[in-house]
Amino acid sequence: MNENTIGEEVVDAAIAVHRELGSGLLETVYEVVLLDELLNRGLSANRQVSIPINFRGVRFDEGFRADIIVENKVIIELKCVERTSPAHKKQLLTYLKLSGMKLGFLLNFSEAMMKDGITRTVNGIH
């Protein structure tokens, strides 16, 4: 499965979760429910995955934690904020660069319509 196919499933799953739960819940609620939705769709996914950083030849395991990684190819960063900021988008791009992954999604479950809360971010693919 390539990144774009996985991305389509991620978007569909996020919309399904938002449609059923609505907005206004805690980020962790969306995280566990979205993970379950992805797993039920037959995808391999894990939450709170530690991603190490290599700096000057030294590996630091405390790099960052990805909210969800799907098929070891796509990072999902969840937010429940009134409005995402450029800093949130930069954070996801940094995660992609550090992990070597090419596709990520910033999902803001606080939007009234989930489609307005989806930001697709790429690192070297089109």
What report would you give on this structure?
The chain has 126 residues and is α+β, with helices and mostly antiparallel strands. It is built from three helices and five strands. The protein has a single domain (3-121), classed as Endonuclease, Chain A (3-Layer(aba) Sandwich), CATH 3.40.960. It has a five-stranded mixed sheet with strand order 1-2-3-4-5.
Keywords for this structure?
five-stranded mixed beta sheet, Endonuclease, Chain A, alpha+beta, 126 residues, 3 helices
Name the CATH architecture: 3-Layer(aba) Sandwich
Q: How many discrete structural domains? A: 1
| H-E order | HHEEEHEE
Strand order in the largest sheet:
1-2-3-4-5
Please report the number of helical segments.
3
List the helices and strands and how they pair.
Elements: H1 3-21, H2 27-40, E1 45-55, E2 58-70, E3 74-79, H3 86-99, E4 103-108, E5 118-122
Helix pairs in contact: 1-2
